[in-house]
Structures are given as C-alpha cells and as structure tokens.
Amino acid sequence: MNKIINNPSEVVNEMLAGMIDAHPDRLALLKESKVILRKEKKQNKVALVSGGGSGHEPAHAGYVGYGMLDAAVSGNVFASPSPDQVQAAIEAVNAGAGVLMVVKNYSGDVMNFSMAAELAEMDDIEVAYVVVDDDVSISKTQKNAGRRGIAGTIFVHKIAGALAEQGAPLAEVKAVAEQVIANTRSMGMALSACTVPEAGRPSFSIGEDEMEIGMGIHGEAGIKRCKITSADEIVQALLDPVIEDLQLQSGDEVALMTNGLGATPLMELYIANHSVSLQLAKRGIAIGKTFVGNYMTSLEMAGCSISLLKLDSRLKDLLNAPADTPALHV
Amino acid sequence: MNKIINNPSEVVNEMLAGMIDAHPDRLALLKESKVILRKEKKQNKVALVSGGGSGHEPAHAGYVGYGMLDAAVSGNVFASPSPDQVQAAIEAVNAGAGVLMVVKNYSGDVMNFSMAAELAEMDDIEVAYVVVDDDVSISKTQKNAGRRGIAGTIFVHKIAGALAEQGAPLAEVKAVAEQVIANTRSMGMALSACTVPEAGRPSFSIGEDEMEIGMGIHGEAGIKRCKITSADEIVQALLDPVIEDLQLQSGDEVALMTNGLGATPLMELYIANHSVSLQLAKRGIAIGKTFVGNYMTSLEMAGCSISLLKLDSRLKDLLNAPADTPALHV
User: Fold this and answer.
1) Which of A54, A66, A271 to mutate to test the interface with B (most CBs of B within 10 A)?
2) What pLDDT was estimated at residue B105?
3) pLDDT, tens only, B300-322
4) Are B58 and B294 in contact (CB under 8 A)?
5) pLDDT value of position B142
6) Per-residue pLDDT reduced to its tens digit, A169-205
7) Which of A146, A291, B44, B302 could cross-link B192 (Cys pair, CB 3.0–4.6 Å)?
8) Among residues 237-256 of chain B, which lie with CB inside 8 Å of chain A?
9) Mean pLDDT for all residues in chain A
10) Residues of chain B with C-beta less than 8 angstroms from the C-beta of A53
11) What ranges in A210-298 are assigned the alpha helix state H?
C-alpha cells in the first residue's frame, strides 16, 4: 500500500496526535473520543461542533479555531463517529449558550449526531443541528437518503462560526446555518480512486483516461463515467447543474470554492478556478470571495469539486469576518 | 493524461490567471513576464523576489504578500524563468531600498537570476541574492552543482520577509537570509512519479510497493530505492541525516516543516509529523514552530519532505512575526 502510515488501524489516532504536535498552542485532544477542541473555551458563546468519518482532511479538525468550529469529532476512515464520541464533544464545548452541530447528510452521521443530541439534552444541554446536503449530483426527488454533504459544508462552518463568535443566540446561529445550506450547491468529479488504509486496496477503479462526474467524497457513484475532457469542459459539467439548481441570475453574487480531493495539484485547481471565473463572468454572476485548495478531500483521490454559495450582504460580511484555524484564515 | 488542464503549453498562464481570479484584492500579475506581485507596493522597503520553475505550487507565488515575498517569477513547469522575466520582477518591486532574490540552487535558476541582477544593476537598482541549498541527500563534497534547494526555502521567505517588513536595510535582510540557509536542512522521499504536462508521461517510474529516499522535487534520483516501510522508518531515514548535518544537540530548538509533495493526503503528513515530533523529543530537541501541509510540491508526486531550521531567539521572533499570503499565515 502506497501510504506513509504505521498501522492501518491507528491512522486516525496518529493523525490527531500529529495535529496536536503541530498546534499545541491552539488545539487540545480528547483522546478517547477522538475530539479536537479549541484550547481556550469562550464562555456564553454558542459552540459549534462538526465531524464525521476521517479521510477528508483538513475537514473537520482543521476548521477548529476562532471564528469557525469549537470541536470536531473524528470517526474511523469514511465511518461515522459513535453517539458517545459526539456526546463527549458536546459536553466538552458547551459554554452555557447551547451547541449547534453541523452534520453532512450521510445516514450514519445523521443518526449518530442526532442520538448524541438526545443524550446531551438529558444532561440539560441545549443542542440543535443542521444537515448539509449540497451535492447536486443526486436529485432531491430520488427515493434515497437525499443529497450528500460535501465541500459546501465549509461555508456553513465559516458563516455560522462567525455569527456565534459575535455572540448571537443558538436559534439565530442555526437559522443562518440553514440559510447557507439553502444557498449552497456543489458538484465534484474524480480522476482516480482512493484506498482506505484498513481495506488496503482501492474501493473502485477508474480507467487511466477516464473520469467520473458527480462522484461522491467516499467514491459513491456519479452520474457519468467518460473520457477525460478539457478543464473548461469539466468545469462546465460541474458548474451548470450548480447554477441551475441555485437558480442563479445575472447580477447575483456568489462565494466560490474550487476544492481539491487530495491528489490534484494546486496548479490544476487554479486552472479550474480560472475556468469557473470566466464561465461565471459570461453569465453576469459576480464572485464575492474565492477559496482554492484542498478543503474537503477523499484521501488521495484525484479530482475536484466546485461549490457556490449565493450571497447577500449579511452572508458576505460573515464570510469575510475574521477566522483563524489551521486550515482557513480570513 | 490524468490532469485537469486545457492546453499543456498554457498551464502556467492559466494557473496565474486563476490565482489572480482568486485573490483580486491582494495580487497583481505582469502577464508577459509571468510575475505575481503584491497589489500594493510599500515604499522604502527592501523587496523580496523569488521564483523558479512552475509545478511546485504554492511555491512561490503563494508566498507573495505581507511579511513574505513582494514578487514571484514563474518559469515553465520545472524550467527556470528567463533573465528578462526576473528583471521585470525586480523593476516592478523596487521601492528604493534594494531587492533581495531568494534562489533555489539549480544551475539554470542561479544563472538566470544572477544575470537579471546584473541587468537591473545597470539600471541602478541595488540587487543581492542568496542561494538556498537545504537538501542533505546530496553530499556537499561531491563534484556537482551542490545541494538542491527544496522546502527549506519557505523558511528563508518567511524570516527575510519579516525582517524586510520591519524596515531593515538590504545588507541585514541578506545576512538573516544567509543565516537561515546555514541553519536549514531538508530531505525528501517519493512514493510515485509525476507528469510534466508538456511531456505527457511520467519522467521516471517507481514500483507499486517501492519508494525512493532522497529524491528531488523534479524527480532527481535519490540515495536509495527500496520497499515502502513504516512512517516511523521513513521519517527516521529523512530525519537522521538532517539532524546529523545540522549537528543538533539535546537542548536545541528547531522549526519543523512536514511538507507534502502534492498527492500525499494531509492524514499521512500528520502521521509523519507525529513521528518527527516523537523522534525529536527522544533526542531532547524542542520544536518551536511546526508547519504541516503542501508547501513545496512536485505536481502530483506522492511523498513528503522534512525540513528543520535551527532557531535562536531572533529567528524565532521573525518566524512568528505576522505574515499574510495566500499559502501561509502567521
């Protein structure tokens, strides 16, 4: 297996230890529960918790810090954390103003985070949660668990985190998180597979000259497998469904995330980002803020996703509010 | 070719355009010369210029901004920029206090940057340069072009940039850059090859279960090709020569960069970083600051490098001084 690891069953523990080694001044670890916390707790602030399966780094522990999350809970690779783990995070970050959990829409995550909310409420902690379902590659009308949560989740962390930092109450922080979710759509594509360390071999395969449009961040099937085309055509295949689903019009303003899935060089992400910028300009859609980089990955998968968040002036202000985390600074 | 690109001969131009699209408020582009500049010029500050072949992103354009570089010059992929390009950068950033160029030790870069310095001096601009040669995989006594410059270069950008920002004169900024170079060593390893877009196929190959220790950031041969071992053993193979060459002792303090070459997931970099931290602790060497991420890459090469900078209190202060660039914030 082509990986820099020691023991496949210890990758999450060693990764979290390595994060604490790198950021001893700002992050703390609840080792048993695999929860990364801010080192300093701010009283009477709504606390934000996110998390899910590992393998999507820097999501979510990389977003723990001022202006974003208070804690991130790590499951095993591509596996939901248990309700007990999430409950430990809730109890650790509760600062008297309630806890908002940002959950990606996968059935295991939704089940375990909501069970944790019930457990915490028995301890008289006020807990709310929102479910991010930004991936437009799945139709909302299909009889399934609904759309998956992917890179657009970072917009929710950023904006809800900024409002929580300003001292807003739980209901208001939850409402803005829901507004971001309603205004965010994403779509991704993959050029290569990835290998879960404990499995030891790729969970699917893509031909040398093939790509898959609409593939999920755990390798879930997309909507089209085809020959690799140009960056402009790839971007169009991702961007058109996003724009259509958001019903964007000329004159609208968006935030843009051109996200790498792990093994795609920054050079290619900037090329894709240029293509997105040109295609949005042609449609008269303004870009208020851009993020380019590996924000929500799938281990060493090659590929990218594009996320748009339709902005209004309040969302834009919150997006531009200060944030200071290992993986994102504003 | 497994890449998100349009035209192999346009990758650098489109990448630079995508950087400007992402950072229109802070970066500007000299299109003809492929130079990325800070949008605002600070008068009477020593200006820092770096650059080299493309394919190492975020190096170097990602380090243009407050507290680090004033300009970065991009050659084609893995090819030095021309003297004319470098001269254009020098002339654009000169703010009356002279220009320091930070050059990685490759013969093309050294030749073209030094020729540019001569050209600029004919225009009465004071120009100095330093050459970074941190890669310990090559012995200094070998009859060759000397050690290569790799990820340790970022420490030079950071510290010389901080001192320039504080208003120090050119001779002092050059001296601190030379101190950082004298105190920095790195070594890397690769798990897979990379493909230069215009070549269209990998420039070398590594077997499925093999790795190469000491490999350069353009795929230059390393010192040992062998079966992949554990993260702890890989780290030891990189770290021991670095520590020995720096003659580090128990009680010393270092800055640490655990750098990814492009396709290695952050999970593995944090695992490697944990291993480095444990091995340094065992030797009684303190870590004053840690950077983990893709800082100096080789397109989609999988692998990592480890860089150590031996600190004193002044270097530590400069390393911790504020920096605000697309790829590095302090």
Assistant:
1) A271
2) 96
3) 999 999 999 999 999 999 999 99
4) yes
5) 58
6) 999 999 999 999 999 999 999 999 999 999 999 988 8
7) B302
8) none
9) 96
10) none
11) 231-246, 266-282
Q: Could you identify the residue written with the tokens 């803020």?
A: A289
Pick out chain B residues at pLDDT < 50: none
Q: Is A270 on the interface with B (CB under 8 A)?
A: yes
Question: Exactly one of B23, B60, B157, B218 is catalytic; which is it?
Answer: B218
Task: Compare all CA atoms of chain B with the CA of A299 and give the residue at the minimum distance.
Answer: B265
The answer to whether residue A295 scores a pLDDT higher than 70 is: yes
Query: What was the ipTM of the complex prediction?
Result: 0.97
What's the whole-model pTM score? 0.97
CA distance B107 to chain A (A): 24
| pLDDT score at A213 | 94
Question: Is there a catalytic annotation at residue B218?
Answer: yes
Nearest CA in chain A to B195: A265
Question: Most B CBs within 10 Å: which of A1, A4, A297, as the mutation test of the B interface?
Answer: A4
- B302 has a chain A CB within 8 A of its CB: yes
Residue A236 pLDDT grade (very low, low, confident, very high; cuts 50, 70, 90): very high
* Closest to A258 in 3D by CA, of A235, A233, A230, A279: A235
Q: Give pairs for A111-116: CB < 8 Å, separation 24+.
A: A111/A80, A112/A80, A112/A81, A112/A82, A112/A83, A112/A86, A113/A51, A113/A83, A113/A86, A115/A83, A115/A86, A116/A83, A116/A84, A116/A85, A116/A86, A116/A87, A116/A89, A116/A90
C-alpha to C-alpha distance for B8 and A330, rounded to whole angstroms? 33
The sheet carrying A99-104 orders its strands as A27-30, A35-38, A71-77, A47-54, A99-104, A127-132
Among positive and negative, which fits the CA dihedral B113, B118, B121, B123? Answer: negative
